[in-house]
From TrEMBL:
UniProt-annotated binding residues for Zn(2+): H187, H191, E210
Protein name: Peptidase M1 leukotriene A4 hydrolase/aminopeptidase C-terminal domain-containing protein
Cofactor: Zn(2+)
UniProt cofactor note: Binds 1 zinc ion per subunit.
GO biological process, one term: proteolysis
Binding site for a peptide: Q31, G32, Q33, P158, F159, G160, G161, M162, E163, K462, Q463, K464
Gene designation per UniProt: RNPEP
Cellular component, GO, one term: extracellular space
Length: 513
């Protein structure tokens, strides 16, 4: 383990009071994944190496420090002592310091947030986290990390969630008021087994972390919420993969599960939907080969038991799969034409197998049909008004908006009409809905609502929301480009350094910093 003392430079985020939710006190946090922790502490900053750690952190009066550690203790002089008793890769060491408080939401879970958000945070997750943990344990084996806490970060936090052991860091956008974005928590909980216990040995095999985690997330979601809802959520994931491959071209080398990362290339620059959603398809394909969900769940549990506290490659994982199912090995399932394991790993492009999402049809079909009506030339308002969307879940609306976006630009005037017909969508506070609405506004050059794009980008700095909107603005009209420039100059200081640099690249401002 290593000990570091106050004043050590780091590459996380130092935030001014005005960049926090409460706007009173400064805040700092670290974000290790993928390779940022090398500027936080000296060490082997590779996921191939694991170790325990301890840390002593002294903070000013009125501040609290939290870390990804199994035990912590507050001593005199505002000094916190942390210990992580299990070996973890360096990217999972995380620290946050701010005016933060906590509230209990389960037998082994607390939420942490700035005081002005703690009530909302407690309300969002009170009593729900334990069920996810319990289902995860039933499926994948013991939860070894002791506590599972959630820290709500300042608005500039670049991710939906980061699976720091014992304490997941999440965007405050999850505070939707209706638990509708809880899939992010289920995802981060799933990393407790896939990623944090069994870790990709190199960033080129990141899909081992994220693909298995997407699979585990959707297993837990199916147990808790059923297959209709889970397949709907998976369909929005598939749409993201479609969008990504359409923009990069299917043959792009990053559209392989196993990515070649040349020396000097920042693994963060290879980040995209492929390890998540194509990885999910590959794990689903393995489950399909087995054919029996319960047998495959047992395999996953055995896989965790076999490789826990280790770092592995895809070959290790797949060899273990074939050893675990000797009949499949004998049948040569790893070399079925078109579905070779080698092809899955090393060939870019659309997944050669897609899991069946038809249980989601009951939720998707009405959304498909409604999107069809909105895309037509003469709007049939009678038919449109006959569809009651008031009971639709957030992900159903998200799916509907993705369909609208796919069909955009819509005939003249339709987006304006859509906006007035569904204030629940065009005036939504939910970040997933706001993202889609802003994308629709931009794709349709609907300048009357450009202010919403600006407001959304001012309110948060999540990478997966920020970059698509800047890409859309930069690829759009003169007015859209001006909006991009204006918004970036106002928000740049509050963006995470990585996100800021990616936006610069999109706007052709590279090299000025
Ligand atoms: N580990 C990732 C976040 C990450 C990836 C940080 C790569 C740095 C580099 C985390 O588990 C994640 O995937 N978060 C998603 C959640 C979603 C898939 C439910 C996110 O932030 O959007
Ligand atoms: Zn993840």
């Amino acid at each position: 383990g290593s000990t570091f003392c106050k004043g050590v430079p780091h590459d996380g985020q130092d935030l001014l009071p005005e960049q926090t939710a409460g706007k009173q006190k400064p805040y700092m946090y670290t974000q290790g994944q993928a390779v940022l922790n090398r500027s936080f502490f000296p060490g082997f900053d590779t996921p191939a190496v694991k170790c325990t750690y301890s840390a002593t952190v002294q903070v000013p009066e009125g501040f609290t420090a939290v870390m990804s550690a199994t035990t912590w203790e507050k001593q005199k002089d505002n000094t916190f002592v942390f210990k992580m008793e299990h070996p973890i890769p360096s990217y999972l060491i995380a620290l946050a310091v701010g005016d933060i408080v906590s509230a209990e939401v389960g037998p082994r879970s607390r939420v942490w947030a700035e005081p002005c958000l703690i009530e909302a945070a407690k309300k969002e997750y009170d009593g729900v986290i334990e069920e996810f943990l319990a289902v995860g344990e039933k499926l994948f084996g013991p939860y070894v990390w002791g506590r599972y806490d959630v820290l709500f970060m300042p608005p500039s936090f670049p991710f939906g969630g980061m699976e720091n052991p014992c304490i997941t860091f999440v965007t405050p956008c999850l505070l939707a008021g209706d638990r509708s974005l809880v899939d992010v928590i289920i995802h981060e909980i799933s990393h407790s087994w896939f990623g944090n216990l069994v870790t990709n040995a190199t960033w080129g095999e990141f899909w081992l972390n994220e693909g298995f985690t997407m699979y585990a997330q959707r297993r837990i979601s199916t147990e808790v919420y059923g297959s209709a809802y889970t397949c709907l959520e998976a369909a929005t994931g598939r749409a993201l993969l479609r969008q990504h491959m359409d923009t990069t071209g299917e043959e792009h080398p990053l559209n392989k599960l196993r990515v070649v990362i040349e020396p000097g290339v920042n693994p963060d620059d290879t980040y995209n939907e492929t390890p998540y959603e194509k990885g999910f398809c590959f794990v689903s394909y393995l489950a399909h080969l087995v054919g029996d969900q319960r047998k495959f769940d047992s395999f996953l549990q055995a896989y965790v038991e076999q490789f826990k506290f280790q770092s592995i490659t895809a070959d290790d994982a797949l060899n273990f799969f074939l050893e675990y199912f000797p009949d499949l090995k004998k049948q040569g399932v790893d070399s079925r034409p078109g579905l070779e394991f080698d092809r899955w790993l090393n060939t870019p492009g659309w997944p050669p197998f897609l899991p069946d999402l038809s249980p989601g049809q009951q939720l998707m079909k009405p959304a498909d049909e409604l999107a069809e009506l909105w895309a037509s030339d003469g709007l049939n308002m009678e038919k449109i008004e006959a569809v009651d969307i008031s009971a639709w879940k957030t992900y159903q609306l998200v799916y509907f908006l993705d369909r609208i976006l796919q069909k955009s630009p819509l005939p003249d005037g339709n987006v304006e009409r859509l906006s007035t017909t569904y204030p629940k969508i065009s005036k939504a506070q939910n970040a997933e809905l706001r993202l889609r609405w802003c994308q629709i506004v931009l794709r349709n050059n609907h300048e009357a609502e450009y202010s919403k794009v600006k407001a959304f980008l001012h309110s948060q700095g999540k990478q997966k929301y920020t970059l698509p909107l800047y890409r859309a603005m930069w690829g759009g009209s003169e007015a859209a480009r001006a909006l991009a420039m204006e918004t970036f100059s106002a928000t740049a200081p509050q963006l995470h350094i990585n996100v800021r640099n990616y936006v610069k690249k999109i706007l052709g401002l590279e090299g000025s910093d």
